[in-house]
Here is the input.
Amino acid sequence: MKVDVHVRKEGAWYVATDRLTQVSDRAKTRDQAVRNLKKALRARHETRERALQLFAAGTVTLSRAAELAKTPVWEMMTLARERRIIWIDDEVIEEVRREAERK
Here is the structure.
């Protein structure tokens, strides 16, 4: 996993921050702070992927998937769109189309 990491010293701690996601972690050494950050980013990625899998399978709603992934709903919508996950049932689309034709 490639990350753009910024490390700064805060007192006795080194704080590593991923510039893209703004996720941070800290440790007593610079190397450990970076390792902790990478581990946290991997866990975050795996959690989001699992939530997307549950959503794609219809096991959870979009809002529940976002909650599980600790991700804003709008971001989960973007991720679902990028993966071409369709969350509007064909019957709903057809019903909306019929309703529009009646008007």
Summary: Helices lie at 30-56, 62-69, 73-82, 90-102. The radius of gyration is 20 Å.
